[in-house]
Backbone:
């Protein structure tokens, strides 16, 4: 891994600039001494003082400055990969800054706080109520959102009127599945091109989706005439991590979409307004910091880009915690449209059994629908760093991707055993299901990139390769 051409060019420009400044300063010294000393001994003093002291001192100072600058930039450049598992790229940092500074800003450069019914800002994205999905992204106010409300490279995808001759593979699930789509789309396309010439990969996943939302999305798309040939459903984490933390402990049905209290309740609670205000302040600081880096073109420096990325990750974590506090406002007494049907359980194990049953039943129904329509259905249980003995946690992961007090950790510890048990029932009932929770069991590399559940590019590469190994056995005879 070497310094890219752009970096080498910048170093050459710095060297040239320092040389010009040094020559200019020496010439200034020459001019000063020649005009300020007597004519007879001016040349001699010039020769002794300038050449013997001033020039050396200036040159040495500039050289030391240059060496320190190069060392700092080199350390910054080579620190990117150990921390983020990807090399520094000026283009990628610049694109991240452009995206961040383009979301949700009003004319004065502040994040807009909307109070429209059902609207929810989630980091940089605005989500709105959907009559069948629960919620979706707003294609009118978000960049890169399909007309059906899903993040996508192609905003024209999933159009019911699009009857082009392609083999369409749809990815379902939450944010883990969404990142599988965005980070490994070419690998997925390459796998299916072994069996079909013209392949299109589409995204039907959004961060926070949990069953039965995937089932509802599939039903709606097929009912409206969207053609799908293969469904890849990647889930499990949201189904056990989100229900209690974001719904049930606030008086909302665990089977309702995430943050339902915030989406459905009127914004008239002072504590809620203050909490939202804190979230907006943090968002504004994040965007302001990104804009400053962008305007001053500091993304050209690997070291300054590294510092910004670390600070931005920290601010995002504070935003997530502040958002959870907003969601902690109780919904009891708010009415059926916020709380949903009453739910209670005797033991904690009953709750997680019910959540796993809902997950299993939703998958069985997706399987039945796909089978009736001649669609290939593949279901994968995603891995997670909090599931015991599922991975050797690296030093870097312990720092940036493992939080013993994370609100979702408890759901993984208590819920995953039930998911794995129900997964075996799915297999017995003929569902093409694969439990991938143990794929990193003997792996000590840094693969998780945050304290929630997400992987870096290397981790997702391993994940999809395991998917391909399983699907290959079915592709020859049936999609």
Residues:
């Amino acid at each position: 891994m070497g310094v890219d051409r752009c970096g080498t060019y910048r170093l050459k420009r710095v060297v040239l600039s320092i040389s010009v400044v040094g020559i200019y300063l020496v010439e200034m010294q020459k001019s000063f001494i020649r005009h300020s000393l007597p004519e007879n001994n001016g040349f001699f003093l010039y020769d002794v003082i300038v050449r013997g002291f001033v020039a050396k001192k200036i040159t040495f100072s500039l050289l030391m400055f240059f060496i320190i600058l190069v060392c700092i930039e080199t350390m910054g450049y080579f620190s990117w990969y150990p921390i983020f598992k990807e090399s520094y790229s000026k283009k990628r940092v610049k694109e991240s800054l452009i995206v961040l500074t383009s979301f949700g800003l009003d004319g004065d450069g502040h994040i807009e706080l909307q109070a429209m019914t059902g609207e929810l800002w989630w980091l940089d994205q605005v989500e709105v109520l959907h009559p069948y999905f629960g919620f979706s992204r707003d294609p009118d106010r978000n960049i890169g959102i399909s007309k059906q409300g899903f993040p996508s490279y192609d905003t024209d995808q999933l159009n019911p009127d699009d009857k082009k001759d392609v083999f369409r593979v749809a990815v379902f699930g939450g944010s883990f599945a969404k990142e599988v789509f965005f980070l490994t789309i070419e690998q997925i396309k390459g796998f299916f091109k072994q069996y079909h010439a013209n392949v299109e990969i589409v995204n039907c996943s959004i961060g926070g989706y949990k069953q039965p939302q995937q089932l509802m999305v599939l039903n709606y798309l097929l009912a409206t005439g969207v053609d799908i040939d293969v469904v890849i459903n990647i889930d499990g984490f949201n189904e056990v991590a989100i229900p209690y933390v974001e719904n049930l402990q606030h008086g909302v049905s665990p089977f309702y979409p995430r943050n339902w209290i915030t989406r459905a309740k009127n914004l008239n609670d002072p504590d809620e307004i203050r909490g939202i205000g804190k979230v907006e302040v943090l968002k504004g600081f994040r965007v302001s910091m990104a804009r400053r880096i962008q305007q001053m073109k500091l993304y050209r420096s690997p070291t300054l880009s590294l510092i910004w990325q670390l600070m931005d990750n920290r601010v995002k974590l504070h935003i997530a915690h502040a958002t959870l506090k907003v969601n902690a406002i109780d919904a009891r007494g708010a009415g059926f449209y916020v709380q949903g049907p009453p739910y209670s359980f005797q033991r904690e194990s009953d709750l997680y059994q019910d959540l796993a049953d809902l997950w299993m039943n939703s998958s069985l129904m997706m399987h039945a629908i796909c089978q009736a329509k001649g669609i290939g259905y593949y279901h994968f249980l995603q891995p997670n760093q909090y599931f015991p003995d599922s991975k050797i946690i690296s030093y870097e992961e312990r720092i940036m991707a493992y939080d013993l007090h994370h609100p979702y950790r408890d759901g993984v510890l208590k819920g995953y055993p039930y998911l794995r048990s129900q997964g075996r029932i799915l297999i017995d009932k003929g569902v093409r299901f694969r439990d991938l929770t143990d794929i990193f069991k003997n792996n000590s590399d840094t693969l998780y990139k945050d304290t929630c559940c997400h992987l870096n590019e290397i981790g997702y590469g391993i994940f999809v390769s395991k998917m391909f190994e399983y699907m290959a056995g079915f592709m020859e005879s049936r999609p």
The chain has 14 helices and eight strands.
